[in-house]
Each structure stands twice: as structure tokens, then as C-alpha cells.
DNA sequence: GAGTTTGAAACT
DNA sequence: CAGTTTCAAACTC
């Protein structure tokens, strides 16, 4: 808020996308190299690498100044290329290592004040991981905690492998340095020496062994992280496995040697299946570390998780504070740590339940990425006002304001635009509005992406978040760079920015725009009475400041009036938490083709307007219709009359839904049958839609293109910060509704959270994760799960972030692990302690889809009490009570299932430390199912 | 460019 | 919650 320009500048969704894309692009190259990325890629046709990169990129990106400064995770300006650099450096330069050490130090220092030992340890992990990371800029590092994590995971894997093979003395040195830094404070004098002795990549581990019991927990986490990396390596690189095996051997050696605890390690290894050995070995180390072989790893993990939870809380708090100190590296670092911790937390939980399955590991890395993505999304979005935790990631991708859409369309097509935006953002810390404008202007310089033609728009929208980033990715990786001209424009305009537009005559501006949209498609307002402080104003509604092109009068939607804007925004959000959420959501239309008879039914794009239109006379054939304007088809959520939407008629949509339901894919035919009101909950469901104020959001990307959305989805994840977790999930194959809101509004019922609810929540998370990882489904499209539904409840959502803290969170995480990877971030289940998660089935039914498809059957079986709790939709009108998720027919999406199997494999290694939910057997059952599946595999 | 139409947002 | 009013964009001329 107070923060510097960046914070002030509103971030147009488009700009956000651009930034995201830029970040992504920057990071892309490195990620690809990482084993993690490889792993991901192996999993799905979609290149996760990019996703991972994206995430990193997000982290790294300096968040464009949002109109609504919110505590962004990424607020700090960072070198966008950091992620890439990091990845590259991971490859092994000593210099890099040393630098990373330095960075770590700086980070550590910065964190010291804020973070507890645990945090330090986290940092350690990060640091260790990041040994390979480029140190180029501490700021960068700090700026993108998530990236760091990602890089870390990737780097760590690589490093470990390399080191294990023959030790890179240099790497060892780097490790030592890191260790020194880390442990120096702890008085571990001899550790360094020992660490040096451990030349193999395990040096870190050995060091950890020395750590005190307190450190053990942290170490465990680290080990887990390493284990994850290892697991990733396994999955991704068989060759790497080889290295890992050697590494494991080393572990065995070390274990006994150092602490005499080696027994545990060796035993561990022996017991474990080959592929898992690596991971387990690490765990064994953890056990050994304390010298307490007896200490159950899980117990430690629990503690660690708790610590992490505390961390996460801290993080949230930081996040809140952050807005103010956005610029400070320390803060960013803290956030990063927090994020990391959150991820680790999840990881820990997962480890407990599943004992670090490879998938879990991947999930972890993914989680980080997701976090990054979420952060990115947040950046893109207008941001939450004060609470980072609450801030909802608005997935720039799928959930789009109409303005955003417009922008997106232009951007999406080429990715060039997105790049432009991103670069523009990079180049300038100017306000988002400026950025937007720049983008617009830039568009001229660039080859203008084809104007969004109706058909194309949808895809564009979808692509906005994801595709843009990816395209940027590719382009950047390819060496694509903005043209100097473009850069000039950006920079220059950035400089001028706000003032310009203020003084510009509206007429001139208007001329410029001809439409309300700039050439690029950025909308500009022409408000006269509302001061651009109401949702009538497209700029305001989009969370961006009015800019030059605007011809508004008496505009207060400017950086100068940031406070006013924020206050107004808050007020509006208080009325409707989703008021600022993107209007267009892309449903994850992942359903299996087989299910997809309806493929056509929907508009060219599966995207839908979250609330739907209410057209009476325009027949949805004019821009009066928001659906039409967004180039999306009408859906059940629409109350239009005489719909003739060329993108998809509501009727058709409904019919399709019904067909799908009848086909049995959807056990409940609620979609079509439902009263409109119920259907409309879509808004709530939209991940993107969550306003910053709103409880959280997560974000998923709504990509209009499934593929795109998939990509996006990865990128967008529930940010740890966001209290409300919106689960983005790929639309289950079964739900035909992909449309509007795939979002699921989870509303916690005031009653107790049933295990089922937890499971569901987990399942959602998992589903999302799965979708991302396996299906690559457009998370973007996923319906986001919003825990707090109604505005009144939105506040409750704030508590979501605490889910992790919530004792239940563990169960959730464990459950998640069982089911899939619960994203560490996912606060969902935790929603209010007492509340049950209710899946609102949005018109999209995305939630259902997710549940059905992604959810383990167990979860499905669990009957969720669908509490008719109405998620208050911002509109109030459209929120429908959640439907029973369990009822959804389980249509398995192939990919998802595969994902499940994957996870299952991981599970067996450890006894479930914490049953998901003791109360109900559903979780356990699900676990059993997983195990079975695994055994089958 | 002015005026009309339209539907969302805001208000009651 | 429904109905009405206000508003600004979209549209027409």
C-alpha cells in the first residue's frame, strides 16, 4: 500500500498476465532442465516444466503495482530472470553456489528477526536447495521465495545427484558455506568439517544429522525436501535414480558413521522399495539425526508441520504486513519462507501419511510452484487489501474481468503481448495502470495480436494466464525479447503514467480508444458520476487504476487516491466478496472425451461467465451481454431470455449438462435441473473471482482452452497466503459443465467438519493438484473452492489460512497425501473449524467434477453433508448450496487416475502417521484404496 | 457526436 | 430478496 510505486500501481489483469508470462518465460529455461520439470513433463503431455517455471516466474516477477495494494507475496521487484538463472546455476557452478550462499545468508539475516529457528531451518533447506541457485540477486532470491523453492527442489535434485556421483568438491564447499551460514548461529562448529567430509550430495544431510533435536524437525523437512527431489529424480530420471542409489548408499554409510545412527538409515533403505529408497533413506537420516532412531519420523514431521504451520501463520501475517514493506527484501524473504514452510508443511503431512511418495514430492515442488503461481496471480490481480493471507489469487488466467479478458485476448493470442506486458512490467515499476497502458501502446509496436475474434477470444482468455505465460516462456527461452521500441514505450509510458491520463482530455482518450478498449483490448472507462469507484467502472472493477486512455471524469481510481480506492473496494467487497473476481471462468473441461459428447455443446470455449448474464433483449448477441462480450457461451447460470449466444446457448449448455448427467457421469443431475439460484453459486466458485478482500482465493486459472487452462492451472495455485483457498481443479471429465464456474465454493458448515468434508477438501485440493500435474488440466479452469462463501462468511474465510494451523489441517494434509497431494497451501478443509466444506456445485459443476474424477473413491464415498449453507454469493443470487460431492458419479479421468496410482505408490512406504480422519473411516478407506491401487500398479 | 438501448451495479 | 434506480457501456443514427 504504502509501498513504492510498484505497490501502488494497479495491476491490470492484463499486465498481471504479462508479468506472469514474463516471469514464466524467464524461468522457463531453467525449469526445463530441472528433474522436477522433467518429471512433470513425463507425467503429462503438457510440459509441467513450463508450469514450474511459470510458478517460479511468478515468484520472481515483480508484482506489478496493483491498484489495490495487497500484501503480495511477490511484491518485491525482482529480476524476472531469476528463476531461469537459478535453474541454470543449479547446474553446478561453484560460483553460483557461493553466491547462493551469500544469498542465503542475506536471506537468513533478513529472516532472523522474523523467523524462528524453524524458519531458519526452512531457509536452510531453501538455501541448501538453492546452492545451485543463482545468487545473482539476493533480491531476486528473496523476492521469489517460491521460485527459490522451485529452483531449490530442482537444483537440489540435480545437485544431489551430481554430488552423489562424485562429489563436486565445489558443491561441497558451497554446501559447507551454506551450512556455516545456517548453522553458524547454532554453534555447529564441527559440522562444516563433517559436511566437507561428506562429499556426496549428502553433505547437507550429514550436517543436518549433527543438528540438535530441535533442528531435527527442520532437518526432517529438509530431508523430505531432498527426498522429494530425489523422488522427483527417480521419476524423472532413471539415470538419476542411479545416482540416487549411490546417494542412498552414501547415506547408509554416513548414517552409521556419524551418529552411529546409521542403522536406522540402512534399515530404512533395506525396507524400502527400490524407488522409494532414496526418499526413505533421507527420512532415515532424519531419524538418525536426532540420534533417536526411535523417534518416529512422523512425530518429528508432525512437529515440523506444526512449526511450519506456525510459520505459515507468520507468513500470513507477514503477508499482511508486507504490503507495506513490500519492497523490503527481508519481507519478501519471509514470505518466501512462509510459503516454503507452508509447502513444507504440506509436504510433511504428506510424508506422514504417505511417507514421501514420489508424487508427493513432486506435489511439493508443484505446490511451491503453485504457490508461485498463486502469487503471480495475486500480483496480477488487484490484490487484497491488507491481508495477504486473505488475498485471493485471482488467476489472471481464467477468471477474468471483462477488461482482463479484453486484454487477455490481445495478449493471449500471441504471447508476445504477454511478454510485452511482462517486460513492460519488469522494466517499469510503474503503476499497473501505466503498465496496462503501456501494454496497450506497446501493442502497437508489437505486431498486434489478432484482434480477439470471437472464436479466438475464448482461447485467448484461457491463454491469458497460462498461455501467455507459457508462450512467453517459450518465446523468451527462445531468446525472444521485446523490441527496443517496445521497451521504450513501456518505460516512457510508465514514467508518464498516471498523470498523463489524468490530464488527458477525455475526448482525446476516447478517440484513442474508439471503443472502450484500447487497441490491445484494454478497456478504458468513461465514467462520469461514479468517480470510477464503483463497479460500473471497468477499470475499477478490473482492479486497475484508470489510465490515460480513460475518459473518466472526476476519477478517483488513481494511484494518488489509493486509499480511497482501497476503501471503496473494501466496501464493495464487504458487500460482495467476489465483486472483483474475474467474471469469466473457464471450467476445467477435462472430462474424458468419452464423456464429452457434449464437446460442442459448450461454446467454443468452455469458459463461462461466472455469474451468467441476465439479458432480456439482446439475446446475448450483443456486447450488452457479458457472456457474449467475453466470448463465452451462456450457461446454466445465465438468466437470459431468448439466448442466442453464438458462443454457446444457455439451452444447449443445459441440455448438454443433462446429457452428461444422464450418461451417468454425473450422478447428480443437478446442473440442469437445479434452480438457477443454485447454479449461480458459480461466482463463488470461481477461483479467480475472489476478490482480494474476499477471503481468499486461489486461483486457478481459468483458461478458456483446456490445454491452456491446464497450463495455467498449474501456475495458479492456491496461494498459501490466501486464506480462502480456492481450489482450482480441472474440471472433472465428467462434468460437462465446465462452464462457468468450476469453482467450488466450499463453505464450511458451522457444524463440525466432518472427515468427509476434510476429505473432500483434500480431494479437491488433490484433484486440483492432480489435474495440474497429471492432467495438466486447466487448473485455471478449475472451479476454485472458496471456503467462505457468502460475503458475510467471507470473513470467516480469513480463518482459512489457518487451516494449516488447525489441527485438522494435518489430517487434511494427510488426507491429501492419501488422496493425492494435498497442496500444502490448501487451507480449505480447515476452513472454519466448525464449518463443513461444502462443494457448491457451480453451474460448472467443476467441483463435482473434481471430486468425482479426482477424488479418490473413498472420498467420493464419503458422504458430504451438503449443507445447504448458502454460500453467499457476492451476488447473493447465484450462489447455490453445495451439492453433495460424494454423490457425484465417479468418473475417472484417466489421467487423474493415473495420478492417483502414482500417489498411491508413494503412500505405502510409511505407515500413515496420522490417519486422515479417525472419526470416519472414509479417509482410511481411501488410503486403503490407494494402497490397493498401488499394489495393483 | 448525440441520443438510445441495454443490462449490470447499486440502492431501497 | 425483489424491485427500482443509477450507471456506463454498447449501440444506433
UniProtKB/TrEMBL annotation:
Domain spans labelled CRC: 521-648
Amino acid composition bias (Low complexity), ranges on this chain: 888-897
SMART domains with a match to the protein in the record: CXC
Region Disordered: start-end pairs: 483-513, 865-897
InterPro entries: CRC, Tesmin/TSO1-like_CXC, TSO1-like
Alphabetic keyword roster: Nucleus
Record family assignment: Belongs to the lin-54 family.
Protein name: CRC domain-containing protein
Species, as recorded: Gossypium arboreum
Amino acid at each position: 500500500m504504502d509501498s513504492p510505486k510498484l505497490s501502488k500501481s494497479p495491476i491490470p489483469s492484463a499486465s498481471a498476465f504479462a508479468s506472469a508470462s514474463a516471469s514464466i518465460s524467464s524461468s522457463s529455461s531453467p525449469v526445463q532442465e530441472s528433474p522436477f520439470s522433467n518429471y512433470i513433463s513425463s507425467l503429462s503431455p503438457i510440459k509441467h516444466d513450463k508450469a514450474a517455471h511459470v510458478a517460479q516466474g511468478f515468484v520472481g516477477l515483480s508484482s506489478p503495482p496493483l491498484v489495490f495494494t495487497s500484501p503480495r507475496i511477490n511484491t518485491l521487484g525482482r529480476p524476472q530472470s531469476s528463476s531461469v538463472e537459478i535453474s541454470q546455476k543449479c547446474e553446478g557452478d561453484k560460483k553460483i553456489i557461493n553466491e547462493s550462499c551469500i544469498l542465503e545468508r542475506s536471506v537468513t539475516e533478513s529472516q532472523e528477526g522474523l523467523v524462528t529457528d524453524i524458519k531458519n531451518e526452512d531457509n536452510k533447506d531453501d538455501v541448501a536447495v538453492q546452492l545451485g541457485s543463482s545468487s545473482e540477486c539476493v533480491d531476486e532470491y528473496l523476492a521469489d521465495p517460491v521460485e527459490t523453492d522451485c529452483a531449490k527442489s530442482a537444483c537440489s535434485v540435480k545437485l544431489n545427484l551430481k554430488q552423489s556421483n562424485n562429489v563436486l568438491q565445489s558443491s561441497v564447499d558451497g554446501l559447507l558455506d551454506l551450512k556455516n551460514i545456517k548453522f553458524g548461529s547454532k554453534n555447529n562448529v564441527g559440522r562444516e568439517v563433517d559436511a566437507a567430509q561428506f562429499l556426496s550430495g549428502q553433505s547437507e544431510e550429514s550436517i543436518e544429522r549433527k543438528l540438535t533435536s530441535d533442528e531435527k524437525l527442520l532437518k526432517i523437512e529438509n530431508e523430505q525436501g531432498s527426498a522429494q527431489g530425489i523422488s522427483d529424480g527417480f521419476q524423472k530420471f532413471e539415470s538419476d535414480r542411479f545416482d540416487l542409489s549411490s546417494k542412498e548408499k552414501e547415506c547408509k554409510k554416513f548414517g552409521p558413521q556419524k551418529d552411529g545412527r546409521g542403522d536406522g538409515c540402512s534399515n530404512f533403505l533395506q525396507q524400502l522399495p527400490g524407488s522409494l529408497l532414496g526418499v526413505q533413506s533421507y527420512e532415515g537420516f532424519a531419524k538418525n539425526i536426532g540420534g533417536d532412531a526411535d523417534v518416529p519420523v512422523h512425530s518429528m514431521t508432525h512437529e515440523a508441520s506444526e512449526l511450519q504451520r506456525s510459520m505459515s501463520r507468520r507468513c500470513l501475517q507477514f503477508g499482511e504486513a508486507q504490503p507495506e514493506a513490500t519492497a523490503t527484501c527481508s519481507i519478501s524473504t519471509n514470505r518466501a519462507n512462509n510459503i516454503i514452510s507452508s509447502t513444507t508443511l504440506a509436504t510433511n503431512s504428506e510424508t506422514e501419511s504417505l511417507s514421501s511418495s514420489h508424487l508427493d514430492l513432486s506435489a511439493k515442488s508443484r505446490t511451491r510452484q503453485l504457490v508461485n503461481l498463486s502469487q503471480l496471480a495475486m500480483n496480477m490481480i488487484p490484490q487484497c487489501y491488507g491481508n495477504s493471507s486473505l488475498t485471493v489469487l485471482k488467476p489472471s488466467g481464467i477468471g477474468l474481468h471483462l477488461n482482463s479478458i479484453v486484454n487477455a485476448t490481445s495478449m493471449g493470442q500471441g504471447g508476445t503481448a504477454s511478454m510485452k506486458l511482462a517486460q513492460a512490467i519488469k522494466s517499469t515499476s510503474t503503476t499497473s495502470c501505466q503498465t496496462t497502458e503501456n501494454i496497450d501502446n506497446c501493442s502497437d509496436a508489437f505486431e498486434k495480436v489478432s484482434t480477439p475474434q470471437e472464436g479466438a477470444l475464448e482461447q485467448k482468455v484461457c491463454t491469458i494466464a497460462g498461455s501467455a505465460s507459457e508462450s512467453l516462456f517459450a518465446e523468451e527461452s527462445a531468446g525472444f525479447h521485446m523490441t527496443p521500441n517496445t521497451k521504450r514505450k513501456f518505460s516512457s509510458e510508465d514514467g508518464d503514467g498516471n498523470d498523463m491520463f489524468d490530464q488527458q482530455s477525455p475526448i482525446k482518450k476516447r478517440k484513442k480508444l474508439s471503443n472502450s478498449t484500447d487497441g490491445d483490448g484494454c478497456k478504458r472507462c468513461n465514467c462520469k458520476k461514479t468517480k470510477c469507484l464503483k463497479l460500473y467502472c471497468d477499470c475499477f472493477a478490473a482492479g486497475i487504476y484508470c489510465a490515460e486512455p480513460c475518459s473518466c471524469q472526476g476519477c478517483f481510481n488513481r494511484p494518488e487516491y489509493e486509499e480511497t480506492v482501497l476503501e471503496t473496494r473494501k466496501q464493495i467487497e464487504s458487500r460482495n466478496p467476489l465483486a472483483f473476481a474475474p467474471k469469466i471462468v473457464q471450467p476445467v473441461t477435462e472430462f474424458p472425451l468419452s464423456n464429452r459428447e457434449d464437446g460442442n455443446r459448450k461454446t467454443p470455449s468452455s469458459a463461462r461467465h461466472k455469474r451468467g448474464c441476465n439479458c432480456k433483449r439482446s439475446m446475448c448477441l450483443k456486447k450488452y451481454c457479458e457472456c457474449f462480450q467475453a466470448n463465452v457461451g451462456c450457461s446454466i447460470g445465465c438468466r437470459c431470455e431468448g439466448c442466442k449466444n453464438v458462443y454457446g446457448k444457455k439451452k444447449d449448455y443445459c441440455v448438454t449438462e443433462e446429457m452428461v448427467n444422464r450418461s451417468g457421469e454425473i450422478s447428480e443431475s443437478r446442473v440442469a435441473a437445479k434452480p438457477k439460484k443454485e447454479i449461480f453459486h458459480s461466482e463463488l466458485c470461481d477461483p479467480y473471482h475472489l476478490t482480494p478482500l474476499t477471503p481468499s482465493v486461489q486461483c486457478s486459472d481459468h483458461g478458456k482452452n483446456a490445454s491452456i487452462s491446464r497450463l495455467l492451472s498449474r501456475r495458479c495455485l492456491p496461494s498459501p497466503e490466501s486464506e480462502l483457498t480456492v481450489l482450482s481443479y480441472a474440471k472433472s471429465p465428467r462434468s460437462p459443465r465446465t462452464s462457468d464456474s468450476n469453482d467450488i465454493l466450499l463453505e464450511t458448515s458451522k457444524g463440525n467438519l466432518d472427515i468427509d468434508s476434510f476429505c473432500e477438501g483434500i480431494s479437491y485440493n488433490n484433484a486440483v493438484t492432480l489435474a495440474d500435474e497429471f492432467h495438466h488440466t486447466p487448473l485455471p479452469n478449475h472451479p476454485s473452492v472458496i471456503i467462505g462463501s457468502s460475503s458475510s462468511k467471507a470473513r470467516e474465510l480469513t480463518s482459512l489460512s489457518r487451516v494449516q494451523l488447525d489441527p485438522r489441517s494435518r489430517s487434511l494434509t494427510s488426507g491429501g497425501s492419501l488422496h493425492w497431494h494435498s497442496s500444502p497451501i490448501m487451507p480449505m478443509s480447515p476452513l472454519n473449524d466448525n464449518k463443513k466444506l461444502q462443494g457448491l456445485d457451480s453451474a460448472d459443476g467443476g467441483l463435482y467434477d473434481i471430486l468425482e474424477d479426482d477424488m479418490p473413491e473413498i472420498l467420493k464415498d464419503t458422504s458430504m453433508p451438503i449443507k445447504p449453507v448458502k454460500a453467499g454469493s457476492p451476488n447473493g443470487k447465484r450462489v447455490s448450496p453445495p451439492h453433495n460431492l460424494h454423490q457425484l458419479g465417479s468418473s475417472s479421468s484417466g489421467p487423474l487416475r493415473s495420478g492417483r496410482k502414482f500417489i498411491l505408490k508413494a503412500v505405502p512406504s510409511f505407515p500413515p502417521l496420522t490417519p486422515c480422519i479417525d472419526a470416519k473411516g472414509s479417509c482410511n478407506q481411501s488410503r486403503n484404496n490407494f494402497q490397493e491401487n498401488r499394489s495393483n500398479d
